[in-house]
Amino acid sequence: MAAVSWREVLLLTGLVVGCYWNSLSCGFVFDDVSAILDNKDLRPSTPLKNLFLNDFWGTPMSEVTGVVGRAELLSSIFFLAAFLSYTKSTSPQRAIVWTPILLTVVLVAVATLCKEQGITVVGICCIYEVFVAQGFTLPLLLDTVRHLVLGKDGFPLALLQTLLKLMVLVISTLLLVIVRVQVIQSQLPVFTRFDNPAAVSPTPARQLTFNYLLPLNSVLDTRNLATLLFYTALALLAVHSLRHRHDSAKTVIMALSLLVLPFVPASNLFFPVGFVVAERVLYVPSMGFCVLVALGFKLLGQKGVLKKLSWLMMALLLSTHAVKTFHRNWDWESEYTLFTAALKVNKNNAKLWNNVGHALENQNNYVMALRYFLQATQVQPDDIGAHMNVGRTYKNLNLSREAEEAYLVAKALMPQVIPGKKYATRVAPNHLNVYINLANLIRANESRLEEADQLYRQAISMRPDFKQAYISRGELLLKMNKLTEARDTYLRALDLDKTNADLWYNLAIVHIEMKEPREALINFNHALELSPRHKLALFNSALLMQESGDPKFWPEANRRFLLYVEEEPQDANGYFNLGMLAMDANEDEAAERWMKKAIRLKPSFRSALFNLALLYSQAKRETDALPALDELLRHHPEHIKGLILKGDILMNHKKDTQGAKVCFQRIVALDPGNVQGKHNLCVVYFEERDLPRAESCLVETLAMAPNEEYVKRHLSIVRGKMAAMSAAGQPLKTQPREGAAVEEVEVEAQAEEEGSAKDINDIEEKRAAALKRLEEIERLLSSD
């Protein structure tokens, strides 16, 4: 083999870079999103064994698997490596070298894992062994076989070695095929007529179309005549090469092998695949085509008169294809540019209209997306996916009635279940989502929950391993307060997939609703074992541990909240709950820091504002508490407990009786039945020395809360004071004096509308402090 010069390497590198440099600005499009961005197998937490159980998309191969489910480029690399390794399997002394053969077997397996057509390299190796390594021509091979069958000659050692090498390859290939068939549970993938229209076309259109694909993927392009010419050319090349032993013939044999064998799995000739025409299946076959071109160029260059013409033709071929490649790269800039370019070629393909719609939908351009989805339904009225796309887009546009109509059309196109009749049919898994989407839409109406449940159950009956149906039905049953059924539904889903962190999380939520916090925490932990950064599991498990009141859980709860804010740094709820944990642990500095962080992210966060003010009040920093309360009441002027706390601070620390009176009057106006506010207003009247009004106020308060002993005691004290003053001839209403008045302040951590705060109204430590201050009130009321 001639050595490759640096000039040739640089020329080839420059040509490739020149053709593809503009593709660097292109984004992830089409299959890239599922295969790379959304592929769980590419995440560090995924077990390595999943690579052997899941397809290229990260989906278990027993479920959505296709023949073209692997990366062609990667497969091509191992394909070539396997072939090159096999070429080293014979020593100069014509003995078998087993190391390259074993390496070939491994590389064949790797190539097949990357892309199923990688297994065809075994056929390439067999052809190489027979016609290149052993130097057989077809007539010689047939003659040798005939002699062996008739027993005219002995069994040559070289032939024995050849058969032994080929047996190792073939047996290993069969084992690989058996494993592959077991993984996909002996079922071919399900493709719809929209993926591959030719696969369901009648005879002879189906056969003519698939045969036409062969010349379409070569240099010719004239329908059925091209098919005939293509097969004729292949046959003439094969026959000529198989009858001769010179090097050019061997080269042609290997080129034809590379051209034909790797294309067979994706040719639709033996089983349908998920496409009609796809450029990606030509990576390996193009090698054979390039070898034929190079051989032709070499042979023409050996004839002086044609040498210049051959160089001209080569330059023209490279330049035209380079320009075409460069221009085509711009189409791959985004999904929108890719599929709009395809629509210019074929406007009668519903899949293309759908794909442009998806691209616009990903840009949140729902109005334009709807136009393309509707056009897809016009091009292919029985395209279930197109009607589903229309329904989903109507839903995104908040047009629920139109969305339901579209989903019902899609549902009507599905195979209909006939009661009492059993039959088998194959349904594209993604089409079953029509039941899920329709149920999710109508369950927004409380009166149609049972109807939605029926749709979920119908989807499950059509595909018992439909995990998403179980998940959605579990959510619905939870909404319907059918907790036992919801739990059983999630357990059934977990039987199908115990590695789904979302299922463990949902089951934990059910146990919370069932008042089973221990089981809920166990399931949250299962979810976090599978997905350590599962945001909802981190937050809610930490909240559950925090609300348990058990200090032994606080360090772990704190760790999980910290992980949560790393994942969601803009969510004020995480910082607020860190602050609440710090308050529970009497870590005032940390609590203040977290509460301020929550308020910076969400200035109107009422629970954070109130608890920050409460923190200041407990730390005897009333001057700092008042601005926080003012900010709270600016955003939430009807916040009762904020008004109570502010009134307390104004009375006891600022000696601002009028300011406190305004707060308590505001409380009574907002909530006439609020005993605390009413009682505190009575104390203000007493502070103002308006004893008749204080008495009347306390009588009203006692009527509201007849079992409150402290109100009875205070009324008795006021009446005693009034009697003593009357006996002494003193007026019952005098000028107010400075003094202290305080009410029982309850701690509030009222849940935000988003639902994430912790209610700590019943914390005994805080209540004890309030009761102590209540004793001070009684001493005040009983004094002169």
Automatic annotation (TrEMBL):
Topology class, membrane: Multi-pass membrane protein
Protein name, per record: Protein O-mannosyl-transferase TMTC3
Species, as recorded: Neogobius melanostomus
Recorded metabolic or biological pathway in which this protein acts: Protein modification; protein glycosylation
Role description: Transfers mannosyl residues to the hydroxyl group of serine or threonine residues. The 4 members of the TMTC family are O-mannosyl-transferases dedicated primarily to the cadherin superfamily, each member seems to have a distinct role in decorating the cadherin domains with O-linked mannose glycans at specific regions. Also acts as O-mannosyl-transferase on other proteins such as PDIA3. Involved in the positive regulation of proteasomal protein degradation in the endoplasmic reticulum (ER), and the control of ER stress response.
Sequence segments annotated as region (Disordered): 728-761
Example of a GO biological process term: regulation of macromolecule metabolic process
Ranges occupied by TPR repeats: 350-383, 467-500, 501-534, 572-605
Signal peptide: none
Compartmental location: Endoplasmic reticulum; Membrane
Pfam families according to UniProt: TMTC_DUF1736, TPR_11, TPR_6, TPR_8
Enzyme class: transferase
PROSITE patterns assigned to the protein according to its UniProt record, in alphabetical order: PROKAR_LIPOPROTEIN, TPR, TPR_REGION
Domain DUF1736 per the UniProt entry, residue ranges: 186-219
Listed transmembrane segments: 9-30, 95-113, 119-142, 163-183, 225-242, 254-275, 281-300
UniProt keyword annotations, A-Z: Endoplasmic reticulum, Glycoprotein, Membrane, Repeat, TPR repeat, Transferase, Transmembrane, Transmembrane helix
Gene Ontology MF terms: dolichyl-phosphate-mannose-protein mannosyltransferase activity
Family per similarity comment: Belongs to the TMTC family.
GO cellular component terms listed in the entry, alphabetical order: endoplasmic reticulum; membrane
Acidic residues biased stretches: 741-754
EC number(s) recorded for this UniProt protein: 2.4.1.109
